[in-house]
Specification:
With about 100 residues, this protein is mainly beta. The protein contains 1 helix and 5 strands, in the order αβββββ. The protein has a domain of about 70 residues: Roll (SH3 type barrels). It is about 5% helix and about 30% strand. The chain has a 5-stranded antiparallel beta sheet, with no helix packed on it. Strand 2 and strand 3 form a beta hairpin. The longest helix is centred in the N-terminal third of the chain and has 4 residues. The chain is globular and about 45 Å long.
Length: about 100
Amino acid sequence: MPSSKGYRSRTRKVLRKHVDEKYLSLKVTPLLYKYKAGDRVVIDIDPSIHKGMPHRRYQGKVALVSGMRGRAYILEIKVGGKVKQIIARPEHIRPWVQAANA
């Protein structure tokens, strides 16, 4: 039997919630955060919300906000030599915090 090739295929470990987050309702704070063009964000997919979810290959990637489309944000990610545009809703992104130099 051939393997399925759906949008969420091979996401058993990638799109899962940690035990601490599993029974919490949707967090409101990330939804209220407003991003401006030029802000850096991390794509952090919430598997319980299917609307506006980017593809699993972009999970954990740092992107640049380039604008809005409705309620969603247009993100730019450099993949190889190309700049790709990803459309994701605010539930699936969080602000990027630069790590402190150790």
